[in-house]
Structures are given as structure tokens and as C-alpha cells.
Specification:
Elements lengths: L31 H33 L13
């Protein structure tokens, strides 16, 4: 049996710091209602994208799945 040794390798450059998001308070440039509408639109868009990705994953699973032992053998041509 082979044994593998793992070792920690650190990046030479430090990871970039994420962009600081604005505070949770509503900015004076945009009214709260407009901000709420934008948040709702974003949530709906994310949900639509999630459903699309789930549908795509199902299609890919059907196209690229490996045959099961219970599947019928391919018909001779």
C-alpha cells in the first residue's frame, strides 16, 4: 500500500482582501423602497438562475450518465 505525505504549501502572495461592502444602512442617494425593490429583483433573479442550473444539471446527468447494470444491453446494429 502506498502512503502519501501531505504538506502545507502557502501562497507566496497574500490573498487579496475582499472589497468592503457598504454598511447595511440605506444610502442617502437611494430611497429605502427602491433598495427593497432592487433586493427583491436580485433574489428573484438568483432563484431563476438556480432553477436553470438545476435543470441543466438534470439534462447533463441524463446525457452523460454511465449505464446501470439494470439497463438493457444496446441493440445490435
Amino acid at each position: 500500500m502506498r502512503s502519501h505525505r501531505l504538506r502545507l504549501v502557502e501562497d507566496e502572495e497574500p490573498a487579496p482582501q475582499p472589497y468592503p461592502f457598504p454598511s447595511q444602512s440605506v444610502s442617502p442617494q437611494r430611497p429605502k423602497r427602491e433598495t427593497d425593490d432592487l433586493a427583491e429583483q436580485l433574489e428573484e433573479t438568483i432563484e431563476r438562475m438556480r432553477r436553470s442550473l438545476d435543470e441543466l444539471a438534470e439534462e447533463l446527468d441524463q446525457v452523460y450518465r454511465l449505464p446501470d447494470p439494470d439497463d438493457d444491453p444496446p441493440a445490435a446494429a
